[in-house]
Design goal:
- The complex is a heterodimer of chains A (528) and B (182).
- Chain A has helices spanning 2-8, 19-24, 28-56, 67-102, 110-129, 157-184, 197-228, 242-259, 262-276, 283-296, 312-324, 326-340, 349-372, 374-380, 384-414, 420-446, 461-490.
- With 528 residues, chain A is mostly helical.
- Chain A has a single domain (28-511), classed as Cytochrome C Oxidase, Chain A (Up-down Bundle), CATH 1.20.210.
- Chain A is globular and about 65 Å long.
- Chain B has 182 residues and is of the alpha+beta class.
- Chain B has 2 domains: 1-35; 41-168, Sandwich (Ctag/Cox11 (Pfam 04442)), CATH 2.60.370.
- In chain B, the strands form 2 sheets. Chain B has a 5-stranded mixed sheet, with no helix packed on it. In chain B, strands 2-4-8-6 form a 4-stranded antiparallel sheet, with no helix packed on it.
- Chain B is flat and about 75 Å long.
- The chains are: A mainly alpha (528), B alpha+beta (182).
- The interface between A and B is medium-sized, with 37 and 32 residues.
C-alpha cells in the first residue's frame, strides 16, 4: 500500500513501485498504458488466429486445421479484434489523452477506471480459456447468431456469455468515466465547441457505448436463458424467432461499428492539422458530422440482414438511411483533404498513417455504399466482399488510426522520439501488405467465394494464396511496430514539450513536458 | 456535486437501455403483427362481409410446403404440392402425418404464408394447425386444411405459399399453456 503513503508525500509525487503500481493504480496515464499494452498483446493473439485462418486458406482443401477449429479461429479472431484490440486501444488513448487535452489532473472517477481496466483481462482470460476446453471455444462467428449460438452451440458458450457480460460492464464503466470527465473537468474557458476533436469523438463514442452495450448484455442474457432456463426467445419451437436475435444484435452491432471508428476520426483530425501546419478545416462541421453519424447509426441496423425476408418498404428504408450516412462521412473526408490542401505538409510516420487512413477508409466507405444497395447486397451477402469491406474500415481505418495516434503521442508519453526511419519502414510494409491482403478479397467475393469456410473452390486459389502472403507480411510487420515502441521507451532523442513543430498551439497536451508529470494539470490552465 | 449528477443520469441511461433491449422482444412481435411480417396469419377464419361483396374472381396458384423442425422424426407432407384456386371459393388440401417411432409423441404445426402481405387474405376455415396432434407409435393420419383466398387479395400477388413447420412438443407440453391459438 505504498500508494497511500506516497499520496501524503507531496514532494515526490510519483507512481508506486513494482506490481502494486499496476494493480492498484488510479492514475489515468498508468491505466492508459495498461489498456494500450493489453490491446497490443491481444492484437498479437487475435492476429495469430488470423494467421491460422490464412495458413489454412493458402491452398484449397484442408491442410492444417479441422473445420471445427477453423470456426473457433474465425469467431475468436473477430471477438478479440473488436472487443480486445480496437475498443481497449481507444479507451487507452482516451485515458492518456483526455485529461491532458482538457486541462485536468486526472479522470473524474479514478477507482472506477482501475476496475474497468482490470475487468478486461478477466473477460478475455475466460474467453480464451474456452479454446483449451474439450468441447472447444465459441465457433458460431463473432455475430453469434441464434440458433447456432444457442441450440447448436458447444456448452462453453456459457463462458462466452459471461465474458461478454464482463466486457460490457467494463465498457460501460469506462464510458461513464469518460463522459463525467469531459463534462466536469474541462479547463475554464474550454466550451464544448472549443474541445479538441479527439475529446468530441470520445464524448460521442461514450454515449453510443452506454446506449448499446446494455442491449448487448440483454441479448446475451436472453441467449443464456434460452440455453439454460428453458425460455424460447430465439427458439421457434417455443414461439420465439431467430430473426429477433439478429434485430436485437444489430441494434447493438451497428452503433458498435461506429464506436470502433469515431475515435480514429478524432485522432486523424489532430494529426492532419499538425502535419499540415493548419488548423482543421470546418471544425464545427466535423463535430456535427460525428454527431449525425452517431444518431443515424441507430436507424440502419437491418442493412446487415437484408436477406432474412423483409418487406420492400423496410429494405428501402434501411437502404436509404444507410446511404444517408455517406453524407456526414463525406463531409469529414472533405474536411481532412481541405485541411491538407495548400498546407505545408511534412510526412512523418503518424501523417503517413493518417493519409493512408483517409484514402483506404474511403475505399471501405465506398464498398459500404455498394453493400447498402439492396439488390446488390443479395449478391454480396456473406461473401468475401463483405470481409473486404469491414476489414478496410477496421484495419486501415480503426487500426491505422490507433497506430497513427500511438506514433503521434509516443514522444509525449515516453519523452523519447521513436525511430523515424523504422517508423517509415513500418508504414510502407504495413500499407502495401494491408492492400495485398484485403483488396483481392473484393474480387473473390464478387466472384462468389463465401466467408467463414475452411475450404474454397479451385478458381479462387491464386487470389487466396496472394491474400495469405499479404496477411503473413502484415502480421510480421507488426512485430516491427512492437520493436519500435520498445525502442522508443528505452532510448531515443529527447522530445521537446511541443514534440512536433507548431503543435504547441494546437492542444493543451503539448504545453506539458515530455514525458508529462504524473498528475497532468495540477493547476488548471486558462483558455482564452 | 456536478459529477454526481452526471453519474446518476448516465446510470439511468444504462438501466433504461438495458430495459429497452428487453422491450425490443414484445415490440418485435407487435411490429410483425401490425405489418403482417413473418407471414403470421392474423386474418380471421372467415370472409368479411365486404370481401363477400366482391364479385370479381380470379385464379391463382397456392403452393404447400412442409418442414420438420430440427430433429422431429415424423413424416409430414402434403398430398399435393400445389393447386390452382379461384378466389372466394373454399378448397381442401390434405396433409399426411406419420409417427415412425415406437413411442407416443405430440406435434404442433406452425403456419406461415409467403409473401407476408398475402397472409391476411389467406382464410383458413379449418386447420390442423389450430391444435396439437398426438400420434401413437407407428400411427399415420391424414388431416385437411380448408381455406378461402380473399377476393380482396392485392392484384400484384400472383401466387401464395403456405408453409407448415412441424415441431416436436412432446417434452414441452404444459397443461395450461396452449400453443395452438395462432
Amino acid at each position: 500500500m505504498s500508494t497511500v503513503v506516497e499520496t501524503h508525500d507531496h514532494g515526490h509525487h510519483g507512481p508506486a513501485k513494482g506490481l502494486s503500481r499496476w494493480l492498484f493504480t488510479t492514475n489515468h496515464k498508468d491505466i492508459g498504458t495498461l489498456y494500450l499494452w493489453f490491446s497490443f498483446i491481444m492484437l498479437f493473439i487475435g492476429g495469430s488466429m488470423a494467421m491460422v485462418i490464412r495458413a489454412e486458406l493458402f491452398q484449397p482443401g484442408l491442410q492444417i486445421v479441422q473445420p471445427e477449429f477453423f470456426n473457433q479461429m474465425t469467431t475468436n479472431h473477430g471477438l478479440i479484434m473488436v472487443f480486445g484490440v480496437i475498443m481497449p486501444a481507444f479507451v487507452g488513448l482516451a485515458n492518456w489523452m483526455l485529461p491532458m487535452q482538457i486541462g485536468a489532473p486526472d479522470m473524474a472517477l479514478p477507482r472506477l477506471n482501475n476496475l474497468s481496466f482490470w475487468l478486461l483481462p478477466m473477460a478475455f482470460g475466460i474467453l480464451i480459456s474456452t479454446l483449451f476446453m474439450p468441447e472447444g471455444g465459441p465457433n458460431f462467428g463473432w455475430t453469434f447468431y441464434a440458433p447456432l449460438s444457442t441450440t447448436y452451440a458447444p456448452s462453453t458458450v456459457n463462458f462466452f456469455i459471461f465474458s461478454v457480460h464482463i466486457m460490457g460492464v467494463s465498457s460501460i464503466l469506462g464510458s461513464i468515466n469518460i463522459i463525467t470527465t469531459i463534462f466536469n473537468m474541462r479547463a475554464p474557458g474550454m466550451t464544448l465547441m472549443k474541445m479538441p476533436l479527439f475529446v468530441w469523438s470520445w464524448l460521442i463514442t461514450a454515449y453510443l457505448l452506454i446506449a448499446v452495450m446494455p442491449v448487448l448484455a440483454g441479448v446475451v442474457t436472453m441467449m443464456l436463458m434460452d440455453i439454460n432456463f428453458g425460455t424460447s426467445f430465439f427458439n421457434a419451437a417455443g414461439g420465439g424467432d431467430p430473426v429477433l436475435f439478429q434485430h436485437v444484435f444489430w441494434f447493438f452491432g451497428h452503433p458498435e461499428v461506429y464506436i470502433m471508428i469515431l475515435p480514429a476520426f478524432g485522432i486523424v483530425s489532430h494529426i492532419i492539422e499538425t502535419f499540415s501546419r493548419k488548423p482543421i478545416f470546418g471544425y464545427s462541421s466535423m463535430v456535427y458530422a460525428m454527431a449525425s453519424i452517431a444518431i443515424l447509426s441507430f436507424v440502419v441496423w437491418a442493412h446487415h440482414m437484408f436477406t432474412v425476408g423483409m418487406p420492400l418498404a423496410g429494405e428501402l428504408f434501411f437502404m436509404y438511411s444507410t446511404m444517408l450516412i455517406a453524407i456526414p462521412t463525406g463531409v469529414k473526408v472533405f474536411n481532412w483533404v481541405a485541411t491538407m490542401f495548400r498546407g505545408s505538409i511534412s510526412f512523418e510516420t503518424p501523417m503517413l498513417f493518417s493519409i493512408a487512413f483517409v484514402a483506404l477508409f474511403t475505399i471501405g466507405g465506398f464498398s459500404g455504399i455498394m453493400l447498402a444497395i439492396v439488390p446488390a447486397d443479395f449478391q454480396y451477402h456473406d461473401t468475401y466482399f463483405v470481409v473486404a469491406h469491414f476489414h478496410y474500415v477496421l484495419v486501415p481505418g480503426a487500426l491505422f488510426g490507433i497506430i497513427a495516434g500511438a506514433y503521434y503521442w509516443l514522444p509525449k508519453w515516453t519523452g523519447n522520439m521513436y525511430d523515424e526511419t523504422l517508423g517509415k519502414l513500418h508504414f510502407w510494409l504495413t500499407f502495401i501488405s494491408v492492400n495485398v491482403t484485403f483488396f483481392p478479397m473484393h474480387f473473390v467475393g464478387l466472384a462468389g467465394m463465401p466467408r467463414r469456410y475452411p475450404d474454397y473452390a479451385l478458381q479462387f486459389a491464386d487470389f487466396n494464396a496472394l491474400i495469405s502472403v499479404g496477411a503473413f507480411v502484415f502480421g510480421l510487420t507488426q512485430l516491427l511496430f512492437l520493436f519500435i515502441v520498445i525502442k522508443a521507451i528505452k532510448s531515443g532523442k529527447k522530445a521537446k514539450p511541443e514534440v512536433w513543430e507548431g503543435a504547441g498551439d494546437l492542444g493543451l497536451e503539448w504545453t506539458l513536458s515530455s514525458p508529462p508529470p504524473y498528475h497532468s494539470f495540477t493547476v488548471q490552465p486558462q483558455l482564452k | 456535486m456536478e459529477a454526481k449528477r452526471t453519474l446518476r443520469n448516465l446510470t439511468a441511461i444504462v438501466v433504461g437501455m438495458f430495459a429497452f433491449g428487453w422491450l425490443l422482444v414484445p415490440m418485435y412481435d407487435v411490429f410483425c403483427e401490425i405489418t403482417g411480417l413473418n407471414g403470421k396469419v392474423t386474418g380471421p377464419s372467415f370472409l368479411s362481409e365486404e370481401s363477400k361483396a366482391i364479385t370479381e374472381q380470379r385464379e391463382l396458384l397456392v403452393q404447400f410446403m412442409t418442414h420438420n423442425n430440427e430433429s422431429m422424426p415424423w413424416f409430414f407432407d402434403s398430398e399435393r404440392s400445389q393447386m390452382r384456386v379461384i378466389t372466394g371459393n373454399q378448397y381442401e388440401a390434405n396433409f399426411v402425418f406419420y409417427n415412425p417411432t415406437n413411442k407416443e409423441m405430440i406435434g404442433q404445426v406452425i403456419p406461415s404464408v409467403s409473401p407476408g402481405r398475402g397472409a391476411e387474405y389467406f382464410h383458413k376455415t379449418e386447420c390442423f394447425c389450430f391444435e396439437r396432434q398426438t400420434l401413437a407409435a407407428g400411427e399415420r393420419i391424414e388431416l385437411p386444411v380448408r381455406f378461402i383466398i380473399d377476393p380482396a387479395l392485392p392484384k400484384e400477388i400472383g401466387s401464395l405459399s403456405l408453409g407448415y413447420t412441424l415441431f416436436d412438443i412432446t417434452d414441452r407440453v404444459q397443461p395450461k399453456n396452449d400453443l395452438a391459438n395462432l
